[in-house]
UniProtKB/TrEMBL annotation:
PANTHER family: ENDO-1,4-BETA-XYLANASE, GLYCOSYL HYDROLASE. The lineage of its organism: Eukaryota, Fungi, Dikarya, Basidiomycota, Agaricomycotina. Gene3D superfamilies: Glycosidases. The keyword Translocase does not apply. Pathway: Glycan degradation; xylan degradation. Belongs to the glycosyl hydrolase 10 (cellulase F) family. Residues 22-58 form the CBM1 domain. Residues 1-19 form the signal peptide. SMART domains: fCBD, Glyco_10. Keywords: Carbohydrate metabolism, Glycosidase, Hydrolase, Polysaccharide degradation, Secreted, Signal, Xylan degradation. GO terms for molecular function: cellulose binding; endo-1,4-beta-xylanase activity. It is found in: Secreted. This is Beta-xylanase. The keyword Cytoplasm does not apply.
Amino acid sequence: MLALSTSFVSIMVFVYVSAAQSVAPIYGQCGGLTWNGPTTCAVGSTCVKENDYFSNCFPLSTAYTPANAAAQAAGKLYFGSATDASEFTSSDYYYSYYLKQLGQLTPENSMNWNATEPEQGVFTFAGGDAVVGYAQSNSQLVRGYNCVWYNQLPNWLANGVFTVAELTEIVQTHCGTLVGHYEGQVQVVSDLFVHSWDVINEPFNDDGTWRSDVFYNTLGTSFVSIALEAASAADPNAKLYINDYNIEFAGPKATAMMELIQTLKASGVPIHGVGLQCHFVLGQVPDDLQTIMEQFVALGVEVAITELDIRMTLPATNELLIQQKADYQSVISACNAVPDCVGVTVWDYTDKYSWIPSAFPGQGEACPWDSSYVQKPAYDGIIAGFQS
Ligand code: G3I
């Protein structure tokens, strides 16, 4: 029995070593006259001959322009990423090394209602403060995120029963306190104080009807103006946004958002921007993304790409990564063609912390840097998009 187990282990080790040797890692050797190691390169790289004795695996990505510099050269305010303190304070030196080079940060979860007001009237800002402090020490913009969203609500709120007056005050207190806490702390761009808040996140269903949650069910559509007014009073200089997904193409949800913006504008409610999340699927970037952004801008608001990622069915191949490059380039080019598209945020810059694999099993590789911080062809697509 012992002998059987030992030989089984030996076979497994042999198989493992053979498999490991069959593919050279990125930057590893993949050829040469005396080379008898692997000649196939890891996905994301290709074998390039240096001389007769040495070939190695170079990343497919060859762009060196910093993405934020490319965005600013194109007249945008920033190229940034979602993040949270657990990521940049980890022992992973490289995460922070690359994060610092971006121009803008969005706190991925740490300013959500369950994190900032877990008990009614008890505010905790530690996670958000960490992101804002990190951004300030690296001269980065922050997009505040978010005041009112159906998700990540504390139980006292999600399962509470309130009168109109009670919930109105709850929304006013939350938005006013949250936005007020960061008022004036954030961001100098060319002597102009600029920062934005996603005051309302994901108010609509995909068919354009209002999402059923404690806010809509209690206050009707008025929760939107209540939140926006409170945010504006707390920080009159902030750009106030409504943010959603599946509004990046013509359809009932985009129409509903446009009608909401028109109504708010006509009523004098402070609204300055629409965030298009842009969680896309490989090969399915909407053709009318630029047109849709222009239609929002025509209503008198700016737009931003707020949560960009482009997922694929795994495993990735070089062909899929090249398609992803084209897709990223399409998105960035669309923003580039619209002067009032002010910036682009990716929903984490690295696959290491992407939300995709846990939400869509079998899919991933959605970000422009892989999980080892190697730039993907998508990165070159981003740079090309800003230079288009
Ligand atoms: O904080 C708890 C922690 O205490 C607990 O131990 C752990 C166990 O699962 O869960 C932690 O909460 C998680 C939270 O992220 C913070 O890490 C939730 O389970 C998890 O579901 C949550 O996922 C977030 C998701 O929104 C749902 O809220 C993702 O990180 C975040 O990237 C994702 O982002 C959303 C945007 O806010 C809105 N647009 C779509 C986008 C993608 O879904």
